[in-house]
Design brief:
The chain is about 30% helix and about 30% strand. The chain is of the alpha+beta class. The structure holds coenzyme A.
Length: about 180
């Protein structure tokens, strides 16, 4: 009897590269799917123009040539060394829970550590409990609330992680990179 060859379905491999202007059109589509009022082309252009000299870093996750996620960081001088603010993290709704945001954040965290960042922070919608869970895995904890920060009066939860500069944080990043939570 002939062996039946079943089709092999492998998850597409995801590459992480610096985000550029050519990713903007798809990023604007993903914004519209992620937020009530997402970033426009001009906001992305302005953010990407500040990569390097303005302390911004943006990474894109690609599957083939398709943009499936992106994340950004803004590194600023703080009172106790440099601080980093996560400006945005979005993953294609069809590719969520596959570790893409984790990979983006691991790479941003490594770059931030190389720049001497000692603390990183972000604002997240109070309703975005999944995103808060993602950040908890990176050692973030709630540090305050900004009332009615978003459209429709939604509160923002401010989260901070002060251990990003610690020696042991590299081990955490290695674990997260390997898919261990
Ligand atoms: C939040 C977001 C970026 C997560 O992207 P993702 O690629 O799906 O995240 P990951 O697969 O790396 O998730 C890592 C972990 O985070 C937690 N997590 C992520 N999404 C979650 C969800 N919807 N519910 C519960 N936990 C979630 C889980 O612990 C998950 O690990 P697990 O899948 O092994 O359980 C994505 O859902 C998104 O784009 N949301 C809309 C935009 C947004 O809210 N961004 C955050 C702005 S501050």
């Amino acid at each position: 009897m002939n062996a039946v060859r079943l089709p092999v379905t492998r998850p597409p491999s995801t590459r992480i590269i610096p985000m550029t202007r050519r990713h903007i059109p798809r990023a604007v589509e993903l914004e519209a799917q992620a937020y009530p009022r997402g970033w426009s082309r001009s906001v992305f252009r302005s953010e990407l123009d500040q990569v390097g000299r303005g302390g911004r870093r943006y990474l894109a996750a690609l599957e083939g040539r398709r943009l499936v996620g992106y994340a950004g960081l803004w590194v600023v001088a703080g009172t106790n060394g440099s601080e980093a603010h996560i400006t945005n993290v979005v993953v294609d709704p069809e590719r969520r829970r596959c570790g893409i945001a984790t990979r983006l954040l691991v790479m941003l965290a490594r770059e931030a550590r190389e720049s001497g960042v000692t603390g990183w922070t972000l604002e997240v919608r109070a309703s975005a409990t999944g995103a808060q869970e993602l950040y908890r895995g990176f050692g973030f904890a709630p540090a305050g609330v900004r009332k009615a920060y978003y459209e429709h009066g939604e509160d923002a939860v401010v989260m901070w992680c002060h251990s990003i500069g610690d020696d042991g944080y590299d081990d955490l990043l290695d674990h997260l990179d390997q898919g261990d939570r």
